[in-house]
Specification:
2 strands
Length: 147
């Protein structure tokens, strides 16, 4: 399994919002801390806001913050939002499948089980869980507690 950079950026943004809570986080701060292109990050933030994971505040003192408690944001749900269907192989998607073995292939069954197991782990993980070591994360990113 490999998640896109877009999903990684979304999770990093939510994680940073959680460790900086209750303070606002600026997009530039996330971009700089994680060496992410600001334009890409802006798209991520827009989608997260549209989905209700974050709220944004405009203006010179603006930024973003979690729209709900970190413990209520399931990582698996964010992955589904940003990745869409996890079609590991083409036969997972009947609309584009060209494989003659669909329905009888044991490999396909095993890959579906592996994907389900992967997502089950992410469904048991919240943004609060990935931000639990707040001070270590702040230190590693070179951020101060209340900035």
């Amino acid at each position: 399994m490999k998640l896109t950079s877009y999903t990684n950026y979304a999770l990093r943004t939510l994680q940073m919002a959680a460790i900086r809570s209750p303070h606002l986080v600026r997009i530039d701060e996330v971009a700089q801390a994680h060496r992410i292109n600001r334009a890409h990050l802006t798209k991520v933030v827009h989608q997260l806001a549209q989905a209700g994971y974050i709220e944004t505040v405009r203006g010179p003192k603006g930024g973003l913050r979690l729209a709900r408690p970190a413990a209520d944001i399931i990582v698996g749900d964010v992955v589904r939002l940003t990745e869409g269907p996890l079609d590991v192989v083409e036969c997972f998607n009947p609309a584009i499948n060209t494989c003659k073995l669909r329905g009888i292939c044991k490999l396909s069954v095993a890959l579906q089980q592996a994907t389900a197991a992967f997502m089950a782990v992410l469904d048991d993980l919240t943004v609060a869980d990935i931000a639990i070591n707040r001070q270590d994360l702040l230190d590693r990113l070179g951020l101060t507690e209340t900035a």
